Amino acid sequence: MEEQAATKAQILDRIKNARMPIDWLVAQMTDAQMQQPGVENKSSVKDLLAHITTWELHLVRRLAAAVKDRVPEVYVIDPSEPWEPGGLDAVNEYIFTRNAQLPLQQVLSDFHSSLQDVLQAVDALTDHDLFDPQGLAQVFGYATERVIGGDTFYHYPEHIQSMEVWLNKQG
C-alpha cells in the first residue's frame, strides 16, 4: 500500500490517476470488444465497468451516510432486491446479473459520471472527516482513506490487470 495521503487533493489525485488506465484501455477497444465475455471469467469489459460503477456509487452513499447519520456501512444491494446473501462473491455475482442486460452506452455513461460523483463526494468531506481520528475514521473503525481506496484506487488495479491481459491476447 502507498503512503497515506496528507491532503484531500492527494486523495483526489490518487483516485483520478488510478482510474486513468481504465479510460485509456476502454479507448483502445471497439464496442464489440467491450461486450465480449472472458475478460474475468464470464465478465466482459462492459460488465467490469458496471461493477466498478456500482462500487463507486456504493462509496458515495457510504460517505454520505457516515457524514449525515454517523452510519459506517450501507447496503451495496438494496435489501428489498431479490438476491441470496452470501458474502462478497454473491454480491458481485448479483451485480453482474443485474447489470448484464444494460446497454453499453448506458454503462459507459454511468461509468464516467460515477467518477465525478466520487470526486464530488470526497471533495465535500472536511479535513476533519478525512484525517482526524475523531472524524469519519471513528465511524468506520479505520482510516477514511482506506474506505475511499477500497472502492477506488485499491480496487481498480485488479480489473486493470485483467483488461490489459485480455486486450493483449486480442492482438
Question: What do these coordinates show?
Answer:
With about 170 residues, this protein is an all-alpha fold. It has helices at about 10-25, 30-35, 45-70, 90-100, 105-125, 125-130, 135-140, 145-150, 155-170. The longest helix has 25 residues, at about 45-70. The protein is globular and about 50 Å long. The model has no long low-confidence stretch (mean pLDDT about 90).
Keywords:
171 residues; mainly alpha
Distance between the termini: 32 Å
In the predicted model, the low-confidence regions spanning at least 5 consecutive residues are none
- Total beta strand runs: 0
Radius of gyration from the alpha-carbon trace, in angstroms:
16 Å
> How would you spell out the order of helices and strands?
HHHHHHHHH
